Amino acid sequence: MELRHLRYFVAVADALSYRRAADELRVAQPALSKQIKNLEDEVGARLLDRNTTGVALTDAGALFLEEAREILRRAGEAVMLAREAEAGKRGRLVVGGLGAFSSGFLPTALAAFRREYPDVEVMVHEIGLPDQLKALASGQLQVAFTIMKEEEIPEELERASILEATVAILMSTEHRLANRQKVALADLADDPFFCIGETERHELHRQRIHQMFASRGLKHRPLRRVNSFESLVALVAGGHGVSMMLPMARSRNVDDVVYRRIKEHGPDLELELFAVWRKTAGKSLARNFVDTLREMQKGRGK
């Protein structure tokens, strides 16, 4: 049994005429009669009575008509849902969260995406920046973030630049240099520095800070690891040290810390954040979300 059999039957049942149904369906009347006969044979019951005045539904036909309409309705709905999913307008999307680092752009983008695509269920899965690409490859995420250079991003991934920012110094409002607008790295060489990365497997933040000093011929005190951004901010707010961060990172202790620009210049102080997604499964969902992210950032730049 095929959907066309059901469509043909419903057309005849509505018109109560093979001729009018054949005209509406644009098929030959003998072919239509044959399809209805095939349907009745498969069902094992007579569905229509043909007489001199037209066509009448049998008891079995009347009941079958209700079910046929429902099947056709559900089939049409399934087609619509599949097309919407293919276009990225419906489905489930899992985005990589970066905690405080994504708090400056992700909430606004999520709200805008919800307005544009209300039938997409979005989940945010917090994963450290070094592990986001791995989570994307394993299917845990559909949209991930990375600060790798564009040429280093694997070819099988689509990518889009969504954010450019300059690293700044995070310090307590009571720090001796907090009243300055810009701070030289040399003036911080003796300050305790915190980095995020509980284990040696997460070295990205530590390496970045070390390289910024080393490339300028400066030494710093041994970096102290903490396991979260909130822990780092709490220690900085309490005057236990300083750190380097992107200034869009937000914390509950925002009143106790300030960001200060770094006096030195150089490409190593500039960071570009890329959204990445796979070229295959769920690409329309991911692309629609990334387009929303980019639009949000364009609006901020105006």
Automatic annotation (TrEMBL):
Entries under PANTHER family matching the protein: HCA OPERON TRANSCRIPTIONAL ACTIVATOR HCAR, TRANSCRIPTIONAL DUAL REGULATOR HCAR-RELATED
Lineage: Bacteria, Pseudomonadati, Verrucomicrobiota, Opitutia, Opitutales
Key word Iron present: no
PROSITE patterns in UniProt: HTH_LYSR
Swiss-Prot/TrEMBL keywords: DNA-binding, Transcription, Transcription regulation
Ranges where the HTH lysR-type domain occurs: 1-58
Family recorded in the similarity comment: Belongs to the LysR transcriptional regulatory family.
InterPro entries, alphabetized: LysR_HTH_N, LysR_subst-bd, WH-like_DNA-bd_sf, WH_DNA-bd_sf
GO cellular component: protein-DNA complex
Pfam family membership, one: HTH_1
Molecular function per GO: DNA binding; DNA-binding transcription factor activity
Top-level division of the source organism's lineage: Bacteria
Species per Swiss-Prot/TrEMBL record: Nibricoccus aquaticus
Protein name: LysR family transcriptional regulator
